[in-house]
TrEMBL record:
Residues 315-592 form the RagB/SusD domain. It comes from Flavilitoribacter nigricans (strain ATCC 23147 / DSM 23189 / NBRC 102662 / NCIMB 1420 / SS-2). Keywords: Cell outer membrane, Membrane, Signal. The lineage of its organism: Bacteria, Pseudomonadati, Bacteroidota, Saprospiria, Saprospirales. Residues 103-246 form the SusD-like N-terminal domain. This is RagB/SusD family nutrient uptake outer membrane protein. GO terms for cellular component: cell outer membrane.
Amino acid sequence: MKYISYHKLMLVAVMILPLAACDDYLDRTPDAEVTENDVFGTFEDFQGFMEPLYSLVIDYNSHALTTGMCIGGEIIGFQGWSSGDRAKRGDYLSWHGGGNGPAQQSNFWCTENNEIGNNDSGIWPDSWRGIRLSNLALERLDLMTDATQEERDLIEGQAYFFRAWFHWELGRYYGGMPYVDRFLQPADDLLLPRLSWHEMAEKIVADFDRAAALLPEDWNDTAVGSQFRGANAGRATKGAALGFKAKTLLYAGSPLMNRFSTGNVTFDNTYMERAAAAAWEVIQLADQGVYSLIPFAEYQTMFARNDGEMPWTAETIFQKVKSQVGDAQQNTRHGRLFTPARFGGNGICETVNQLYVDRFEMADGTRYQEAYDQDDSKRWENRDPRFRQNVLVDRDRAGIANGTIVKLYDGGQDKGHVGLLTPYIVRKFWPVGVNRIDQVWSQYRYVTPHLRLAEIYLIYAEAVTEAYGASGSAPGAGLTAVDAINLVRQRSNMPPVSANAAGYDSFRELVRNERFVELCFEGHWFSDIRRWNIAHLPEMKPYVDLVFDQDWTTFNRQVIAERVFDDPRHYWMPIPRSQTQIYAEFNQNPGW
């Protein structure tokens, strides 16, 4: 869907920045005047103003060169500027612009010359831009006089959604932030103090509630969206607003956020009750047919396609919709994260930690054991089907030609000479044929979903487990935590679990492991282990390689690195130091 007026957006670009005006700055003819009414008067023009908000959403695995959001220890990189290596060193400052050139960029990137939508922007600057644009939209809403009620609701709903969304993005990485709920002018009090996480969360939730009341379940069913049927993927919807409301409440109830707000490193069951109720609202939408878990045979279509179509399915609730198609996506994006050099990557290729691989159960639902490393029938076979759907192992075929069989044994063609640190390649975003050998990549597209239905079930399961127990359910809901987990597991033909969580220390541990497996490499691990306040524990730090010969004679584990993660320093990203020096109330995070 396109609503855009470029000359008007140029005016808006000036309007949103407080500039020192000069009366004789520019001599203009009357015909050259563009007023605010020209920008905001009709739905079409106003929606053109809203479009940059979608461009400011960060896709975690394709936004920046060489870096993604798998930064919690699940993968390890070879070169110093890769996200896997920075995470290993705890080098958060460089993620904010501590290096030079595009190789140093990241999802958090912040420089003095960021521009909307450019790849050298990131979560910190773009979230504040998005908040300002959202507030300006709400302030100018009354100027949209030539519009239906539906059109007014769509604009207002998107503005509330994105104001909440961008505060949420900041909060999950940086901690409690000021909640900017008006379009600030130079004369306003700009010395806004940081809020506790709970204070910020309440304001985020209120805005998501406002958005949910105004936005449609499906844009295709609106008078506006029906004109662009089939081109509405990625729009903010009621389900997205309710889903992120549930996610915000889940985080608010987690130990790290409770610690930041109250000093208590425990779960807050009141927030967990509210998270369960919000997740149940989205599940009810699914029960009505708005969303559905897609068949396992179509699993990869949520993340990558090689037919030119946007990866978007009935399971997708919210993600960034990108227009890029073709081999450049492999050569400059996926290739700089997850592709071995021989297949078109550039030698950085981030590979999977053996300890993360261990989290995938056996096909019968039992836990993987280190002793299975020596057993060809158990090491990589007869595992949870999601393992091989998401990870390539030695002797797998990565493409079509015979030359695309991966060689990940010690000294092998892929692992031995180009710096791959473990024998596991991320497959999730890499369709067959998208490589330098086959070159079937002219229609390649990949994305990282921000929210999909499987995660909603997992949010519900975790919240219910903490608030009501594994066999409990949210009030009025006909679904227990056990039921929700089993809905996700049965899609991949994994056996059901029960409340006794056989093989796990607790049902809580089982729920967490299910998140690790189902949502792997989508940017959740880093946030999860932090919000659970376990990221600093010794067992969360090792990176382990599995070393074996070409004939699979012997297999030996080697600890190749220990992740640097200090408490409390690494629980929050450092705020750019220049920002914390503006006024005392905007303080830096601990340890930075």
